[in-house]
Design brief:
Phytyl_CoA_dOase-like, 4-stranded antiparallel β-sheet, iron, alpha+beta, metal ion binding, Phytanoyl-CoA dioxygenase, globular, 8-stranded antiparallel β-sheet, about 15% helix
């Protein structure tokens, strides 16, 4: 399945596209079962108990320890901030399946059920390679993947952000593939989008590795928008965020410049999703050594 002209027009206009039933129920069940398996083998005794933190506008406080920086080439686990006892920061107050925020960032290579989604033989709608071709990619590379668990009652909010801030190429080229493995609703913290913001919101800063360790947000001295017409238009301050409630099995495509966020999950229903990102790997796109996420041995995974 390639994207239709109307779907391409909607993605170009809004910066995101919802494709219902992109995964059949059998695939959703398989990915949930793999998530359960991965949670069951988390090596808690040797884990550094790294929490996932988004940090403030300057990048201060964003997760950036050695465990996080090494996660591009393995399967790592990151905890919810509120899963720990305030009086004893090394003690979990929740069982592991209800305490983990994220599993990443090399699932697309190391976990067979997740890596199969990139296969041309995958029995799914909107195969990633076909979608990438529809979007005009010449050499798409998958550079990170993760299961995100918006945990019941403690699932943290994610502030407005643009994916190309964290996965920067010069010029920007990132596109996110976001699969709902459970229903995502307003009650449990679904995504919300600022439609059209990819056209006028530049990539002004980048999350990079800090000398001596850690991460920091720095000014972007490269291109702020992707190549092509229609970018850099006048800022439309009147836009409002639009909720993206979706059923399990849905795929959401997210433009790297699009402003999007999710609210805290205060409900008793969790929300598990799987997401990966692609970038253009052609020679005219620069992915440099400043980026927090560096390629594993052999480079980023090719879609075709």
């Amino acid at each position: 399945m390639t994207l239709t002209p109307s779907q391409l027009a909607a993605f170009d206009r809004d910066g995101y596209l919802i494709i219902p039933s992109a995964l059949p129920p059998s695939t959703v069940s398989s990915l949930l079962a793999e998530t359960t398996r991965l949670l069951s083998i988390l090596p808690l005794e040797s884990h550094p108990l790294t929490r996932f933190q988004t940090g403030d506008d300057t990048g201060e406080g964003h997760t950036g320890d050695a465990y996080f920086l090494a996660s591009a080439s393995n399967i790592s686990y990151f905890f919810e901030e509120e899963a720990f006892d305030p009086s004893n920061p090394t003690t979990l107050t929740k069982p592991i399946p209800l305490a983990v925020n994220k599993i990443g960032h090399y699932l697309h290579a190391l976990s067979p059920p997740f890596s199969h989604l990139l296969s041309p033989d995958a029995d799914i709608q909107a195969k990633p390679a076909d979608v990438a071709r529809s979007l005009g990619f010449t050499d798409p590379r998958c550079l990170q993947s993760m299961v995100i668990l918006k945990q019941p009652e403690i699932g943290g909010a994610v502030p407005p952000h643009q994916d190309s801030t964290f996965l920067y190429t010069d010029p920007p080229s990132a596109v996110g593939f976001w699969y709902a493995l459970e229903d995502a609703t307003l009650e449990n913290g679904c995504l919300t989008f600022l439609p059209g913001s990819h056209k006028w919101s530049p990539i002004e800063r980048r999350l990079v590795r800090k000398e001596g360790g850690g991460t920091v947000m720095v000014e972007n001295n490269g291109a702020n928008f992707p190549r092509g017409e229609g970018y850099g238009v006048e800022d439309e301050k009147g836009c409002e965020y639009v909720p993206g409630e979706v059923k399990a099995g849905s795929l959401v495509l997210i433009h790297g410049n699009l402003l999007h966020k999710s609210e805290r999950n205060t409900s008793k229903k969790g929300r598990i999703i799987y997401t990966f990102h692609i970038i253009e790997g052609g020679e005219s796109y620069v992915y440099d050594e400043k980026n927090w996420l560096q390629p594993p041995e052999g480079g980023f995974t090719k879609l075709y």
